[in-house]
């Protein structure tokens, strides 16, 4: 059996410029060259060779489900929560309690917030 490694996540977005600006502002992601095509899909680096691909689909109806999310980790969740507050980005725990973090059974803290298209993003201390 071959070994697999995570490469990228791709999201359909209604306005690619708005989405790129959001991810750059909130997560400080750096835009990188789309080496796959000359399309309007834009790529952002998630570090360590991982990427977020934002695919423009202006007429696409996006269905949102909190259980379908992607998760990133940080060593300083409190600092990131302060960034969300400074940028007026609403966040919640898993149960949708506004402005509250969630503590998992294993003691890991996490928060959830949404991008401009409503996709859920989890940020946790799990390293």
TrEMBL record:
Domain spans labelled VOC: 5-126
Keyword field: Dioxygenase, Lyase, Oxidoreductase
GO terms, molecular function: dioxygenase activity; lyase activity
Ranges annotated as spanning the membrane: none
Official protein name in the record: Catechol 2,3-dioxygenase-like lactoylglutathione lyase family enzyme
Record-linked InterPro entries: Fosfomycin_Res_Enzymes (IPR051332), Glyas_Bleomycin-R_OHBP_Dase (IPR029068), Glyas_Fos-R_dOase_dom (IPR004360), VOC_core (IPR037523)
Key word Amino-acid biosynthesis present: no
Pfam families the UniProt entry points to: Glyoxalase
PROSITE patterns the record matches: VOC
């Amino acid at each position: 059996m071959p070994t697999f490694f995570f490469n990228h996540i791709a999201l359909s977005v209604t306005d690619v410029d708005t989405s790129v600006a959001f991810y750059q502002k909130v997560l400080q992601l750096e835009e990188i060259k789309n080496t796959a095509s000359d399309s309007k899909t834009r790529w952002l680096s998630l570090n360590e060779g991982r990427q977020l691909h934002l695919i423009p689909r202006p007429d696409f109806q996006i269905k949102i489900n909190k259980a379908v999310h992607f998760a990133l980790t940080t060593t300083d969740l409190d600092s990131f929560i302060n960034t969300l507050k400074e940028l007026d980005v609403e966040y919640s725990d898993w149960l949708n309690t506004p402005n509250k973090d969630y503590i998992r059974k294993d003691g890991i803290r996490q928060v959830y917030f949404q991008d401009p298209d409503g996709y859920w993003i989890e940020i946790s201390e799990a390293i």
